[in-house]
Automatic annotation (TrEMBL):
UniProt protein name: Metal resistance protein
Example GO BP: negative regulation of DNA-templated transcription
Family, per entry: Belongs to the FrmR/RcnR family.
InterPro entries, sorted: Metal_Tscrpt_repr, Metal_Tscrpt_repr_sf
Domain of life (superkingdom): Bacteria
GO MF annotation: an example: DNA binding
Length: 91
């Protein structure tokens, strides 16, 4: 599925660009010797943005690539797939 654009790729790119902006701010804050608490808050924002981007990417992949690979299956075979998709939300 290389090169395939999923529904949320644009949202993921937007989120990562926002994180990139936050990271630039953090670097500037460190260089300007801003208070550690302020720097930590900005780092936390970067971390959250990247974590959410990763979760969205994984869920998007599962919703499109896994479903395309598995195809139509019966209810008994569907349950482990649905559970797998649900548990990945805790990554």
């Amino acid at each position: 599925m290389s090169g395939h654009i999923h529904a949320h790729h644009a949202d993921i790119a937007k989120r990562l660009k926002r994180a990139e902006g936050h990271l630039r701010t953090v670097i500037a804050m460190i260089e300007q010797e801003k208070p550690c608490l302020d720097i930590a808050q900005q780092l936390h924002a970067v971390e959250r943005a990247i974590t959410q981007a990763k979760k969205t990417l994984i869920q998007d992949h599962l919703d499109h690539c896994l479903e395309a690979t598995v195809g139509e299956v019966g209810a008994s075979q569907r349950k482990p797939i649905d559970e797998f998709k649900q548990i990945t939300k805790y990554l």
